UniProtKB/TrEMBL annotation:
Gene3D superfamilies the record matches: Ribonuclease Inhibitor
Signal sequence range: none
InterPro entries: Leu-rich_rpt (IPR001611), LRR_dom_sf (IPR032675), Plant_receptor-like_S/T_kinase (IPR051809)
Entry annotated with the keyword Zinc: no
Transmembrane segments: 83-105
Source organism per UniProt: Malus domestica
Keywords, comma-separated and alphabetical: Glycoprotein, Leucine-rich repeat, Membrane, Repeat, Signal, Transmembrane, Transmembrane helix
Pfam annotation, one family: LRR_1
Gene Ontology CC terms, in alphabetical order: membrane
Protein's name in the database: Leucine-rich repeat-containing N-terminal plant-type domain-containing protein
Cellular compartments annotated: Membrane
Record bears the keyword Repeat: yes
Coiled-coil stretches: none
Length: 128
């Protein structure tokens, strides 16, 4: 896939009454630094195409109806500094690679959710 836009850096769609799934094409905004889609009515899973947003520093999907698990592809966003996933319906667990791969992570909000695992010790070792 090619980039849809190389000039779009911030995409703030929070509190926009958006319903349905996060479009798979969201991964085509290659240079986006901040993606905010919080406080909508988004449902379904976080798409794996999110891994194409390699410049992403902030991802805000809080307070939606999203479900499923945290996709492994999210852990491949090496520049991610803020990950806000609170108030959605994530389940299963947080893998230990979140703390080892996403090394620039400064803010992490995961609750309230339906997560069933302990917090991996690798998160306590983040340097920021």
């Amino acid at each position: 896939m090619s980039c849809v836009s190389t000039s779009l850096l911030t995409n703030d769609l929070s509190i926009s009454n958006i319903k349905g799934n996060i479009p798979v094409d969201t991964g085509n905004f290659c240079n986006v630094i901040d993606l905010s889609m919080g406080n909508n009515q988004l449902s379904g899973a976080i798409p794996t195409s999110i891994q194409r947003l390699q410049n992403l520093q902030g991802l805000y999907l809080n307070d939606n109806e999203l479900g499923g698990h945290i996709p492994y592809e999210l852990y491949q966003l090496y520049n991610l500094a803020e990950l806000i996933l609170g108030g959605i319906h994530l389940s299963v667990y947080i893998t230990s690679c979140l703390g080892t791969v996403v090394v620039f992570l400064r803010s992490l909000l995961l609750g309230p959710n339906l997560l069933t695992s302990k917090i991996p010790s690798s998160l306590w070792e983040l340097k920021y």
